[in-house]
Amino acid sequence: MKPEVLVMAASPSASVMAQLEQHFQCHHLWQQPLEQQAAWLQGVAGGVRAVLTTGAIGINAALLAQLPKVEIVAVNGIGTDAVDLAATRSRGIFVTNTPGVLTDDVADLALTLLLSAARRLPALDFYVRTGAWEAGRPLAPSRALRGKVCGVYGFGRIGQAIALRAQAFGMEVRYFQPRAIGGVTVPRADSLLALAEASDYLVVAAPGSAATRHTVNAEVLAALGPQGTLVNIARGSLVDEEALIAALRDRTLGMAALDVFADEPRVPAALRELENVVLTPHVGSLTVETRHAMGQLVVDNLLAHFAGQALLTPVA
């Protein structure tokens, strides 16, 4: 018999979905109306041996407790902060994610957001669309990137890819994370606060966890300053959202460009109403090529597990 898999969310790749159906007996929770999911789950939970989820959805201890036979949780994404790792460890449940394959696209979006904020692209688009250009209304110049400092908070694969792109635009790059990275030429700041003080642009690329929650706080935002810009493509939990809103509203922070938020997809109205922020709906990895590669890695990890082979990308 095919192993039974609880699928929490669909992949946009038709090939990935076809492979899941070919190799596994899939129970698609995402297809069930919200009000019927609990009852539906009771009917299938007893046979589920694997869970396919996303970094945003994750899986909590309460749901795991309903799945007595689960052996592996395959996360379609990098982040595992929404997965109750204590619960999986206590039961010996394997966890995998999809690192590496989304690095370039996420780094590309980070620079896209940085450029959009620096050159005020949303405001310029609005300026043309509303006829302000034709009417001859004054337009303030933006600032060049060359020679500016791009601070990168979190210097793993994605952070280093962001650094390469920023350097290509003539920016100076510095980074901070608690553990220094060997073999890199980019200088490391002594602290996140010191990085913010030295940066014109602060790009958040660190993992979301209890240890990093609200590390980008009011003090860090004040250090970045009224000419500074915050870019976040990591997790909304790293930024104190209330402090960010206050800093943007009071202009003690110049700009922000955000792909992630504290309570997605609910973005505070106070943030949406501000003119000095660029907002995108958590789409760092949303390209056809990368979403297929992520889904394929999920399938390959599941196939390896049920074949008794080593997992390709296990989470420690």
Q: What is the end-to-end distance?
A: 30 Å
Placed side by side, the strands forming the largest sheet appear as: 7-6-8-9-10-11
Strand content: 15-25%
What would CATH call the class of the largest domain? Alpha Beta
**Might you state the CATH topology name of the largest domain?**
Rossmann fold
What is the residue-mean pLDDT, rounded to a whole number? 97
Oligomeric state of shown chains:
single chain
CATH homology group of the largest domain: NAD(P)-binding Rossmann-like Domain
Specify the CATH architecture of the largest domain: 3-Layer(aba) Sandwich
Sum up the overall morphology in one term: globular
Order of helices and strands: EHEHEHEHEHHEHEHEHEHEHEH
Question: Total strand count, please?
Answer: 11
Report the C-alpha radius of gyration, rounded.
22 Å
Helix content: 25-40%
Number of helices: 12
Largest sheet composition: 6 strands, parallel
